[in-house]
Amino acid sequence: MNLTIIINDMKRKYYIFITLMLSFLFLEAQQSQDVTIPLSDPGKRGTLHVEIHKGPITVKGVNRQDILVKYQSMESGETKITDAKNGMKKISGGLPSLEITEQSNSVYVESDDWNKGLILNIEVPRNFDLELQSYNKGEIEVENIAGKIALESYNGRITAKEIEGSVVANTYNGQILVTFTKVNNDEPMTFVTYNGKVDITLPASAKANFKMKSQQGDIYTDFDMQLNKSPNQIKKEGDKWKKTVIDNWITGSINGGGPEVSIQTWHGDIYIRKR
After folding, report:
1. What pLDDT shows up at residue 237?
2. pTM to 2 decimals?
3. Gap between the Cα atoms of 59 and 253, Å rounded
């Protein structure tokens, strides 16, 4: 099933507001469905906001002027009729819902179901900003985007490839892998995970100041990085006592320095690669 929304009134001066409440039919939930969302101002930059409670998110930048959302239940597979209580046959369970809203080139894709997961594959114009968030089984993959990108997953790795712009990425369980073709020299960036490595590839000419910490791992780079020693922090407690904090952050700069890039992991190595 392909659901396409077409807006004919191109002279409308006010924003176009679209809300879709998508309910999965049981027989159709086993296959990927898609919906096309037109933008209020095609060709202009917008922002995609995605928040789901369970399931992976994949976003790819392509040559288009609208948004294509492909969605599928995580419980896809063959339709089966199973035995249930009191001799009844179970032919369908609860299925996830999905809400999509567009307003002034801001597109919101949301599902608040914690038990039934969704698999999302989304295509956007390449020049688009992203704010993506998932919790359980929440792997996030982004490719070929030029913009400001914010990625957050509680359980799942984060991968961003062929990025032009800036990235902020946070996850609890999973590695962070980001490859840039060009960085925004005005935007600070942050990469944080608790369990997993952080692997960042930057153009050879990128300018940045780094602040890095790995509790149980090592830090590697093939840049000619100028390292700085972080001073110990002295904190006063009460009227008499002072506490000295040994700060194990590693700081350094490449190509004369630039916006701050903060990288932190507790269980994993850090890699800063030169492209």
Report:
1. 62
2. 0.82
3. 31
